[in-house]
Automatic annotation (TrEMBL):
Subunit structure: Homotetramer.
Lineage of producing organism: Eukaryota, Metazoa, Chordata, Craniata, Vertebrata
Location, primary (coarse class): mitochondrion
Family per record: Belongs to the short-chain dehydrogenases/reductases (SDR) family.
Location of this chain's protein in the cell: Mitochondrion inner membrane; Mitochondrion matrix
Gene Ontology MF, one: 3-hydroxybutyrate dehydrogenase activity
A GO cellular component annotation in the UniProt record: mitochondrial matrix
Documented EC number(s): 1.1.1.30
Region (Disordered) residue spans: 1-21
Record carries keyword Metal-binding: no
One biological process term in Gene Ontology: steroid metabolic process
Protein name in the entry: D-beta-hydroxybutyrate dehydrogenase, mitochondrial
Length: 393
């Protein structure tokens, strides 16, 4: 290379050394900047979490009820905050739209009406004036829930045998409802996929049979029932309401078999909503919080029975590694979680009712305690490292 006059040129060896040294310093600088950036991101996330917690600390002490209710305008964030950041606005702060017309001429199918949410919802929708088809798993066995609904002696309350895991029973239900509707061409206004089961147990404690059993009801049952009744729903330009859970938005230890099915329901609902929007069908998801105390899914006896069954089926190696004391601690945690659940199902029932009757239903409803709502927001919107620091224990 030609030298410029008056400017000394470094020797090749010296130039190479300077280049390598400079590259090393640049690499160290980039690494240091990256580490600082990661720490800054973590601290920023923690700051947001603390600000959210601080923001909610005062209102929480003033609320007369602890569970979110979308009609309660006293709950939730300030109007300006709700307007600017609607994704941070709990369902309790959103406006209540007008109801649809001619409810008395519309029919709704609810699955899982033997007890719990489904049983209460069937009665509530009947009181609103709907023609209710209450799908009951044990109707053929004369179960108390279906008998009580039959004893209402109402033309607008009709129980049907329906196991969402049985394709034949679903097909028979479609035929029965098609024949029972006054005008089948106008279709079925609403389908509420409520049937579901739950269990608990860490991954190493849960058998593959249990994973399949829970998924067969909660996920495949929802999909199977929706596909069968969708033509009737489409004719009516009606509604599909899928009952998910807060566990469909966030993971939880010892609940993997349940969480994966509810995550699946969330994804299925989103895909279906995109497909049905051009058809005029609205898809809504209800994500209840902890209402186990109101549904009687878990009694202390049932919790212990599930735990004992898991323990007996565990490989000897796993039993030896964890020990019986560990299992007893998990039983205590599950009992504590169940006892802390809300005994009042009305927030869930009102959310489903709104999804079926509102002229502008929400995509998602969050009937849950403020603690769980805030936890869902943190685990959904903040970096995972922040949520892990707060909630892994």
């Amino acid at each position: 290379m030609r030298s410029l006059p008056g400017r000394p040129q470094p020797s090749p060896a010296a130039g190479s050394g300077c280049t390598l040294a400079g590259a090393g310093r640049a690499s160290q600088t980039r690494g240091s900047c990256r580490a600082k950036g990661e720490r800054a991101c973590c601290w920023y996330g923690l700051w947001i979490a603390m600000m959210l917690a601080t923001r909610f600390s005062r209102p929480l002490s003033l609320f007369s009820v602890k569970t979110l209710n979308f009609r309660d305008i006293g709950n939730g964030l300030r109007p300006v905050q709700g307007f600017c950041f609607p994704f941070l606005t709990p369902s309790g702060r959103r406006s209540y739209a007008s109801e649809i017309d001619q409810i008395g001429s519309k029919a709704v199918l609810v699955t899982g009406c033997d007890s719990g949410f489904g049983f209460s919802l069937a009665k509530h929708l009947h009181s609103k004036g709907f023609i209710v088809f209450a799908g009951c798993l044990f109707k053929d066995q004369g179960a108390a829930g279906s008998q009580e609904l039959d004893n209402m002696k109402s033309e607008r309350m009709r129980t049907i045998q329906l196991n969402v895991c049985n394709s034949q029973e679903i097909e028979q239900a479609v035929e029965h409802m098609g024949a029972s509707l006054k005008d089948p061409q106008k279709g079925l206004w609403g389908l509420v996929n409520n049937a579901g089961i739950s269990t608990f147990g860490e991954v190493e404690f849960t058998s593959m049979e249990t994973y399949k059993e829970v998924a067969e009801v909660n996920l495949w049952g929802t999909i199977r029932t929706t596909k069968a009744f969708l033509p009737l729903i489409r004719r009516a330009k009606g509604r599909v309401v899928n009952i998910s859970s807060m566990m469909g938005r966030m993971g939880s230890p010892a609940r993997s078999s349940y969480c994966i099915t509810k995550f699946g329901v969330e994804a299925f609902s989103d895909c279906l909503r995109y497909e049905m929007q051009p058809q005029g069908v609205k898809i809504c998801v209800v994500e209840p919080g902890n209402f186990i105390g109101a549904t009687n899914l878990y009694t202390p006896e049932r919790i212990k029975a599930i735990a004992e069954k898991m323990w007996k089926e565990l490989p000897e190696t796993v039993r030896k590694d964890y020990g019986r004391k560990y299992l007893d601690e998990q039983i205590t945690k599950m009992e504590s979680y169940c006892n802390s659940g809300s005994p009042d199902t009305s927030p869930v029932i009102n959310s489903i009712s709104h999804a079926l009757t509102s002229s502008s239903p929400y995509t998602r409803y969050h009937p849950m305690d403020y603690y769980w709502w805030l936890r869902v927001q943190i685990m959904t919107h903040l970096p995972a490292a922040v949520a892990d620091r707060i909630y892994i224990y």
